[in-house]
Structures are given as C-alpha cells and as structure tokens.
Amino acid sequence: MKKENLTTEVKVAISFLVLGLFYLSTKIGFAYFLIGSMGFWVGIGLLIARYKFKKQFSFKIKNVFIAALFLIIVGILGIGTENSPNDTTQIAKDQVQEVTKEIQESEKAQEKANKEQKAKEAKEKKLLEEKLALEKKANDEKEYQAVVDKAINDFNNATNKDELLAFNNEAYEKLIQLLEEDGITESADQEIWYSKYAPTYETRKVEFEKIEEEQRITQQEQAKQTTIVYVTGGGTSEVYWYSTARMPSNTNMSNVVQMTEAEAIELGKRPSRR
Questions:
Q1: How far apart are CA 138 and CA 143, in angstroms?
Q2: C-alpha distance across the termini of the chain, in Å
Q3: DSSP state, 258?
Q4: Is the pLDDT of residue 206 over 90?
Q5: Contact (Cβ atoms closer than 8 angstroms) between residue 160 and residue 195
C-alpha cells in the first residue's frame, strides 16, 4: 500500500508539472501564464513535500483526474478569454491593415521606380536629341561653309566685273536655298553667312571698278590723240569745237585751224560748251 501511495504522489506531482509547463510554453496570454504557474508550482511543492519533508499524501486516482480536468477546463476557458470574438476580429483587422500597408508601400515603391525610369528615359531621349541636333547643325554648317569657300575661290578667279557679279548671285541663291531648307529664314541669321564671303566680293569689286576707271581714262587719252578739233581765230581762240557745225554763224571759216584734241589741251584750250 505504501508503494502504491508513493507512485501516486509522484504521478500527481508530474501531472501538475507537465500541465504547468504546457500552459507556460503556449505564451498565448495571461490566463495561460497564470494557470501554468499554478500547475508548475503545485507539482514542485508536492515533490518537495514528499522527498524533503517525507510527507506522504493519500491520493485517489479519481481526485487526480478531477484536478487535471480542472486545469484543462480552466485552460480552455482561458483560451476562450484570450481569443474572444472581439480579439479575433481585432487581430483580423490588424492583419488586413498590415497587408494593406504592405501593398500600399509596394505600390508606392513601384510608382516611384516607374517615375524614376520614365525620368531616366526622358533624360536619355533629351540627350540623344541634343546630340543629333548638334550633329545636324555641324553638317549643315559644313554645307554653308562649302558655299562660302567656293564663292571666295570664284571671286578670286573672276576676270571681270560681270563674271564677279554672276559668281556672287550664284553663291547667294545657293546659300539661301540651304538656309531655308534648314528652317533658317531670319535675315539676321542669313547675314552671318553672307558676311563670310562679302568682304572678298567687295574687295574684288573695287579692284575691277578701279581697272575699269583706268581703262576709261586710257581710252579717253587715246581718243584725244586722234580726235580732230577746230580752233577759230587762226588757232588763237581759247576754246575748241568738235564740229564746225556748232560754231557761230558769223565765224570766218578761213581762219579756222584743225589740230588734235591733245594738242589743243596742251595749248591750254578748253572744249566749247556749245
């Protein structure tokens, strides 16, 4: 009988310890903690009383089952208390809010990434357009400069004023055509390119005008050497005529002297105004 009581005491103590440790390990709420603590320390107390103070208890198996059932029922009630409908609803709400928050943060992150990608693409597109524009401008300016170089070369090789004018008109028309094809229609912008060959044109034009003037003077001098003029008064008159028909009607034709215009000028005579 003594051996049976000892076994029963140990079983009771172990039962309380196991149930106490079980409730403590769940970590669900205060009710579990309280019940687990009670079971644990009751089991410890029974063991101390049995082995240290040598105190024996008379347990019936029925009472042990009743005590264990009590702890289980209280634990179940604790579960019901810890997980009441209101608490469950709140947990669900919290979970929904957390998931919603994660979704919103994910959407914001994606939206930010999309904006950054679009900004990057726009920047790259702008840089490409600027590069292409610069390349086109460089190519266009090469075409304009080619017209200018050709015009300057033509001006320097022109042999007369008429040829120079023809080269100038050709360069002007070609330059206007290229500029207007590229959308450059402002006269101020066009003038920039005219000014690149205009000095050469003006210089050559002055040169040809000077040559023409020299040729004209030479021709006049040559004409004076061969042109016959008429001087009245036996050659003493201060004026001379290119034709006797223009002389006064009372002129004594017998006293009219012929000489070249160069000779008349050398004698200090001047042309008649008639």
A1: 9
A2: 180
A3: E
A4: yes
A5: no
| Class of residue 184 by CB neighbours under 10 A (exposed 0-12, middle 13-18, buried 19+) | middle
Q: Please, what is the Cα angle at 105 between 100 and 109, to 5 degrees?
A: 150
Average pLDDT, integer, range 54-58: 54
CB atoms within 10 A of CB 92: 10
Pure H helices in 227-256? none
Rounded (10°) angle between helices 61-82 and 2-26? 10
The CA distance from 39 to 247, in Å, is 163
Nearest-angstrom CA–CA distance, 13 and 16: 5
Please answer whether residues 144 and 172 qualify as being in contact, where contact means their C-beta atoms are separated by less than 8 angstroms: no
Whole-angstrom distance, CA of residue 48 vs CA of residue 54:
9
Q: Does residue 271 contact residue 240 with C-beta atoms inside 8 Å?
A: yes
Token code pair at residue 237? 């008159």
